Amino acid sequence: GGLPKGKISELVGPATSGKTTLALKFLAQAQAAGGQVGYVDQALYFDPDYAHRCGLDLSRLLVGTSHDLQEALAMTEALIHSGGLSALVFDALDFLWTDAEAAHLLAATLNRLPVTLSRSGTILLVLHESSSGSTAAGDGPALSALAHHAAVRLQVVRERWLPNHKDVRGYEARVGIQKNRLGPAGRTVLLEIEFNGTVRGNGL
Q1: Which contiguous run of DSSP H or E holds residue 109?
Q2: Domain limits at 105?
Q3: Taken in order 13, 73, 45, 165, is the CA torsion positive or negative?
Q4: 166 Cβ partners below 8 Å, 6+ apart?
Q5: Which of 9, 35, 84, 127 has the smallest CB count inside 10 Å?
Q6: How far apart are CA 79 and CA 75, in angstroms?
Q7: Mean pLDDT of each 10-residue bin along the chain, 204 residues long
Q8: Is the overall model pTM greater than 0.70, yes or no?
Q9: Tell me, what DSSP letter sits at residue 19?
Q10: What is the number of structural domains in the chain?
C-alpha cells in the first residue's frame, strides 16, 4: 500500500541489512509515478552509481549532502517546506540519535516537521539503525520524538546470502511492519536483494 503521504516513516536496520537499497527503490517508485524526490545524506553514504542501478533517474533527484547535522536538518526542512517533493529520504550517522547535543537538534526538528509535512504532502523516510520502538527516557529525545511522530516503522533484517555458483549475488532480507497507525502492523515479507540493485519479493 506504500507509505503515507504527509507523514514520517522509519526504515530501521543494521548496516548491510538492505535498508538503503529499499529506500532507493522507494524513491525510484515515487519518480516512476511522476513525483519529484530527494535524498538528504548527512551520513555521506550516498552512492550515485548504485542509486542509478536501483532505478533512480539521477537527473531528477535532489541530493543534499552535509556532514554538519544542523545544516542537513535545515536542508530537510527547506526541501519539505518548498512543497515540491513527493518523497524525501533522510540518512544520518546512527550515533547522532543518541549523542546528547545532536539528539536535541534531531528532536527539535522532528517535533516541528509534522505540520509542514501535512501541508506539503511529502513522505519523509528516516533511515537509522537503532530501534525507537520504546519511548522510555533512556532512548533519549531524538528516538523518543521519532517514535512519537512516525506513522510507520519498517524493520529490515538480513536473513541469508544468495549464492551464485562460487560467488554471492546478493542476500535475502526480512522486512517487518513494526508499527502502522493507518493499517495493520505485524506483517512480514521476504525480499531478495541483489548487488546490481534488483529487488524481488511479494512487496509490502
Answers
A1: helix 100-120
A2: 8-154
A3: positive
A4: none
A5: 84
A6: 6
A7: 92 90 95 97 95 95 97 98 97 91 95 96 93 52 93 94 88 93 90 83 59
A8: yes
A9: H
A10: 1
